[in-house]
Write a structure and sequence with these properties.
514 residues, alpha/beta, eight-stranded mixed sheet, 20 strands, 32% helix, elongated
Length: 514
Amino acid sequence: MTALTLSTSSAATLRADAVVVGVAKGAKGVVVAPGAEAVDKAFDGGLAAVLETLGASGAEGETTKLPAPAGLKAAVVLAVGLGEAPEGDEEYDTEALRRAAGSAARALAGTKKAGFALPTGDAGDAAAVAEGALLGAYVFTAYRSDSGDAKGARGARKTDGKAPLGEIALLGAKPRDKAFKAAAERAEALAAEVNRARDLINTPSNDLTPKSFAAHAQAAAKEFGLKAEVLDEKALKKGGYGGLMGVGQGSDNPPRLVRIAYTHPKAEKTLALVGKGITYDSGGISLKPAGFNETMKCDMSGAAAVFATVVAAARLGLRVNVTGWLALAENMPSGNAMRPGDVLTMYNGKTVEVLNTDAEGRLVLADALTRASEEQPDAIVDVATLTGAMVLALGNRTFGIMANDDAFRTSLHEIAEAAGEPSWPMPMPGELRRTMDSPVADLKNIGERAGGGLLAGVFLQEFVGEGITWAHLDIAGPAFHESAPFGYTPKGGTGSAVRTLVRLAERTADGDLG
C-alpha cells in the first residue's frame, strides 16, 4: 500500500515530485486554503489568479496541475478543489478534506512522492487527509498483464495503467505529537482494511469461492492473532444450517460458515458482525435477466466488510471483542439447485418456503444470525448487498439502516455520517410480516413487492435472538461503484461499511454502544 509519513518540511522545502494544495470557491473567485501559504508565496501571491486563468473554480474534487515556480523543491503543484470556502471562523468539513485528498491521490497515480499541504489544523483534519489520500491511491492490478514490452503470462494485451502514488508526506502535521501520530496510524490501518475488502470484492468469482474466501480469513487470523473456525459443507449439513446448504447446493463450490474473532483481555462488550458472502449470485433457478449478472461477484461485499473490520479492530488494539460471521455460498442453477417451492429448515428450526431463489442472501444471513445470537453478544450488526429495492429507494451512494432498537439505529446513522459513509435510517413496518405468511411453512422468503428492502429486514429479524440489540445495513447501492471514480471512491469494490463498523467498534470500546 502507499506509504504515509508525517513531515516537518514546508511545502517549499519538501523534496518530492509534487505538492498538493487546496483551493476553494470564494465569494469573489478562487481562494487558497490554509496550508498552501508557502506555495502561494512562490507564485508571488498570485496562485489563485493563475488557477483562475487555467479555468479552475475550486469546485469539490476539481484538480489542476501546473509547473512549480522557482522556490519550490517539487516539480509540480497540484491544486485540488475543496468546494465552498467556509465563512468566518468556520473550518473545512472533514469529509471535504477526505474527498479532496482522495482526488489528489488519484490524479497523481504514477508519481513516486507527493507532499499534501491541505488544511491540517488539528489531528482530526490530519486523519481525514491521510485517510482520503490512502483510499484514493488504491488501484486493483492483480489481473493486469505486464505493462512492459513483453506480453503477460496468458498472452493478454498490455495495459497502460499507472502504479499508485508511492508515498504521501503529510505536511503541517506534527510527527512527535501523540494525537497526530495516532491519527496517522489509525488512517493506515483503516485504509489497509478498506482496501483489503476492495481487493476481495474485485476478485473474480472463479478465484474467490467460499473455500478460498475462508482460506483468506484463516491466513489473516494467523497473521493478526485472531481465532478462525470454518464449517464446511459436511459440518453445515450435520449442524442443520438449511439456509446455507439450500443456497449452496446448486454449485460445485460448496458453502462455508466462517467465525473469525478478535478478543481483548480487558474488553467489557462484544460485537457480533454478520456478513452476506455470496461469492457469485446468478439468481439460481430464478435466474437474473441479462445485464444484472455481470457485477455479481460483488455480492460478498458484506462478508468482506465484516472480515476487514475484525482485522482492523485487531490492528488498532480496540478494547472490545469483535466476532465476525461470514456466510459464504455460491448461488448457481443446476440439477441440484434449490427450486422455487422448496421448503428449507433453518438453523433455528423455522421452516422457510423459497418462492424466489434470487432472494438468497437473507437465507444465508438467517443461519448466521441465529448462530451469532447463541453467543449472546451485546449487539449484532449484519451487512449485506441485499436488495435492489434499497438501491431504488436510496440510490447508488447511500446504504439503508434498519434495527430493532430506534436509539441504536440513530446511533449507527450518526456514526456512518461521521465516518463519511452516506446512510439513511429506514423503518420496519410490522404489517409486512403478514405478507410472508406461507400456507406450507413458517414463512416465505419473499412477500409483497412494495417495500422489498424493508421486508428483507423484517425477515431477518425473525432470526435474531430474543433481547439482543440488532441492526441491518443494506449496502446494495454503494458496495460496488460502476461509474467514474470520485474523491477517494474507485471504480469497482468500495469497501462500503468498513469505516462505519470500525467507528462502531471504537465507540463500543469507549463504553458507548448507542
